[in-house]
Amino acid sequence: MILTVVGLKVRLGLSWIFLTPFLIWSLAEGYFRTSYLGLTSRTYWWMAIGGTAGFLGSLFLHEWAHAFMAKRRGVPVPASTLFLFGGVPDATPTPADPKTESLVALVGPLASMALGLAWYLAFEIGYRVNLPLAVLGIFNFLAFANLLVGGVNLFPAFPLDGGILLRAWLRIRKKDIQQATRLASLVGSLCGLLLMVAGFIHIVSGRVLIGIWWFIVGLFLRETAGTSYYHLVTQTMLASMAIRRIMTSNPITVSSDTSVQRFVEDYFHRSFHHLYPVMEDSRLIGCVGPKQIAAIPRDQWTELTTRDLAIPCSQDNTIDINSDTEAALSLMTKTGNSSLLVVDRGQLAGIVTLKDLSKFLTLKLHVKPSL
To answer: CA spacing 20 to 30 A to 255: which of 88, 105, 198, 335?
Structure first.
């Protein structure tokens, strides 16, 4: 589920299904219980819930700062998925210049550090006016957590913000964003491995809770470093290939006056395609597929025609022949359509499917360097 707050679309990653209860348990039975003695068990758990909610809100502010700077610099801002130390944008286009990339990356850690100082100030004021110890404990934790998020994000480990700063510097040095991303991802992957080893050492040494958290952070870095690199490779390859080179030209079409019964028997049961352009004379009027057939009772198949079932042509199911394959994949992701009609000045030119794009990427990735 995506939430939109102050113009920023965010979703919690699936990892938070496991991280949220683990974080609450860690705070209740670990951090708060050992740091603030003499409170009831219920109080520790309420402090843990409040601390976790505040931490998630802090991560959102971190991502909002990125989005705010990106908009200021003219960079599109898609939805982001929140993870342990920030968010990973969905298919974010790489900023046009290293300076913009650096500014967008740097503002997140600075926002977290500023929020950490604000929570510490709230703790100091609360201490002087004698706020309850439980409230002070939450303030103190949020101050520490935000400073930690800001500090960790400055590590030169891609895709953390520090790793993005490293990539921006490498872009200036190497003049090649793909090579810069590969080197930054290698550093991020290595940092993740070192954190996993450190976590394992902590666990063996008896510091189980700390060890588990270090291991989780390391695993996150290892996975996202490689994923971010291959995302860029995929994006680069798709942007370099025109739709006309991937599409199926002269696809099977069906006349608008064809009955549903005949369409099923003569077309669908013979060619098994997922999308059929519907033509009226020589004019493309829409498309029809299995979903539209399934919505019609069988006793109406002889009465209705493909014109009655056809989905009209729109920006959701058509793409211009001069577009690149990246635009096609983006449209498929946005609309959920796995097949698109390719048009040339309003005339049908072909069909492109998600399967076509997958085949193209599979072949191209075989000749790309690995991490």
So the answer is: 335
| Residue 204 located in a structural domain | yes
- Under a CB-based contact definition with an 8 Å cutoff, are residues 150 and 105 in contact? no
Yes or no: say if 260 and 306 are a contact pair by the CB < 8 Å rule: yes
Read off the pLDDT band of 365 (50, 70, 90): low
CA atoms within 13 A on the CB side of 223: 10
CB distance 161 to 109 below 8 Å: yes
CA dist 277 and 284 (Å) reads 7
Shared-domain flag, residues 146 and 292: no
**Helix axis angle, 133-152 relative to 98-128, nearest 10°?**
160
What pLDDT digit, counting tens, does each position of 201-244 carry? 988 888 777 788 788 778 877 777 766 666 666 666 666 678 88
Closest CA to 361 of 273, 236, 244: 236
Query: pLDDT tens digit string along 347-359?
Result: 999 999 888 888 8
Please indicate, yes or no, whether residues 70 and 156 belong to a single structural domain of this protein. yes
Residues 333, 188 within the same domain = no
Range of the domain at 319: 243-365
Q: How far apart are CA 316 and CA 336, in angstroms?
A: 9
Cα–Cα distance list, 54 to 57, 119, 132, 164, 274 (Å): 5, 10, 17, 26, 47
**Is 70 exceeded by the pLDDT of residue 81?**
no
Decide if 371 is inside a domain.
Answer: no
